[in-house]
Amino acid sequence: MALFRPEDEEKVRELFDAVERTVELVVALGPEETPGHGARDIDFGAETVRVVEELAGLSEKVSHRVGEEAPRYPAVYVRPEGEEVGVRYDGLPWGYELSSIVGAVVEAGRRSSSLRPESLEALGRLDRDLAIDVFVTPT
Amino acid sequence: MLLAYKAALASPRIRATAIEANEFPVLAAEMDVWAVPRIVVDGAPQWDGSVPERVFVERILSATFG
Question: Can you list the domains of chain A with their CATH numbers?
Fold first, then answer.
């Protein structure tokens, strides 16, 4: 089954058209095949690879590869110009959360942040490292 | 979620991770996830729900300095 409905795929293509620099999606599958859970028996790792393949297929500036370590599996790193900058999705991005990955790619593809200048100024005052975890569900 | 990603992309000091709560139920339980999005900073739950950019930045910074 296709990841996006045709009209949604067109919207994502349009968003990706604005990408100014390359963005690499790196899937971490972990040391073992990710088991399926419950009756649906989904292989989350394989599905995650399929998601990033489809996303990368929508723009020449977006690439993908498999192979990285992560605290949890599967996981997807979003890397502007291949650089690790601390942007990751843990789990299979699908449903509503596809928009998070799409949004991350679009933002990573920008040469300048889309945050407001006052936000950037405030974040610039940070004098230590900060880890933000956001728990999400796809529905 | 997107604001956290934007913050991470804007600041070398910030990392942002989305965690699919259904796939990692033990971790979600540890963070008392009842509603999503639940925002956790440095391992400490902060708030639930989407907020405007200004509020988001204020809250993550107050989590840091508070």
Answer: 6-123 (3.40.30.80)
**How many beta carbons lie within 10 A of that of residue B36, not counting itself?**
23
Q: Give the total number of structural domains in chain B.
A: 1
Mutate to test the interface with B, among A90, A115, A133 (most CBs of B within 10 A): A133
- Does this model's pTM top 0.80? My answer is yes
The 10s digit of each residue's pLDDT in A96-116 is 899 999 999 999 999 999 999
Q: Which domain, by its residues, includes B49? A: 2-65
ipTM of the complex: 0.96
CA distance A5 to chain B (A): 22
> Is the predicted pLDDT of residue A39 greater than 50, yes or no?
no
Q: What is the DSSP letter of B30?
A: H
Domain of B20: which CATH number? 3.40.30.10
